[in-house]
Amino acid sequence: MNELIPGTVVTLDVDREAPFGYFLTNGEEDVLLHNNEITEEFDLGDELTVFLFQDHQGRLAASMKIPTAQLNAYDWVEVVEVKRELGVFVNIGINKDILVSKDDLHEIWDLWPEQGDRLYCSLKTDKNGRLFGRLATEDVIRTISKNAERKDYNKNITGTVYRLLLVGSFIISDEGYIGFIHESQRKREPRLGEKVQGRIIDVKEDGSVNVSLLARGHEVIGDDAEQIYSYMESRGGAMPYWDKSDAEEIKIRFNMSKSAFKRALGNLMKVGKVYQEEGWTYFKKE
């Protein structure tokens, strides 16, 4: 008789009713099917296809809800709880959430998934038969990916972060493209499992793409202008910078390129907020 293993799908006989559900059997082992794991009616003696897991007391249990994430099958699962001392819990579709151990997550807490983020996972068991989430490797992600085309260049893209490196982050887009976000193409490092929006800045020969999370030039003028204006407010309406200031000084002070600075400053002058004089920029009096 086959051993009953958590994380697998098996067919068992309905043996007898219990106070909180029904006991199923393979002839040697009995498994409880709790009432909250029943999805349709059946009779004693029927055969049921069920998913096996360990309940909160560590006992082998069954569910008629068959998750798509199993021991040897991957799917997207949602993060439902974060516990710093343990890891993150994900919902695989049964009434018990599954732990993705902190040992499989980044050492920096801020890069852990948050509630509502999504992970591509299968399941694994420890020596005691307890189920844990197994994060997909690069090779696994590539089995569900598809190649981008040159015509996709500069298109907007939405994807989920599945891998973190020192130099950048990897996403798989809603279309299935594998994308790399270099650290220079983001304002902050996204979390594992976070959904991000950006644009394709290169389509590589292997069909993967490079992605920027920074806005296009015409889209950032407003934000950059607001940053400059706020800085001037903090200095009483004047600053020792203008459109001929040194690029390195601008980078140090505002963390933006000289071209972006000039565009933003030009926008402020165009709407009549500021004027320039002898190396300085001043608020215009209303």
Please characterize this protein's 3D structure.
The longest helix has 18 residues, at 217-234. The mean pLDDT is 92. This protein has helices at residues 138-143, 217-234, 247-254, 258-270; strands at residues 9-18, 21-25, 30-34, 47-54, 60-63, 75-83, 87-91, 98-101, 118-125, 131-135, 156-165, 168-173, 178-182, 195-203, 209-212, 238-239, 274-277, 280-283. The chain has four helices and 18 strands. Helices cover 16% and strands 37% of the residues. The chain is of the alpha+beta class and 286 residues long. The protein folds into four domains: 9-63, Beta Barrel (OB fold (Dihydrolipoamide Acetyltransferase, E2P)); 75-136, Nucleic acid-binding proteins (OB fold (Dihydrolipoamide Acetyltransferase, E2P), Beta Barrel); 145-212, OB fold (Dihydrolipoamide Acetyltransferase, E2P); 217-283, Arc Repressor Mutant, subunit A, CATH 1.10.10. It has a five-stranded mixed beta barrel. A hairpin with a 5-residue loop joins strand 9 and strand 10 (131-135). Residues 5-65, 70-136, 152-214 form the S1 motif domain. Belongs to the CvfB family. One of its GO terms (molecular function) is nucleic acid binding. InterPro entries: CvfB_fam, CvfB_S1_2nd, CvfB_S1_3rd, CvfB_S1_st, CvfB_WH, NA-bd_OB-fold, S1_domain, WH-like_DNA-bd_sf. This is S1-like domain-containing RNA-binding protein.
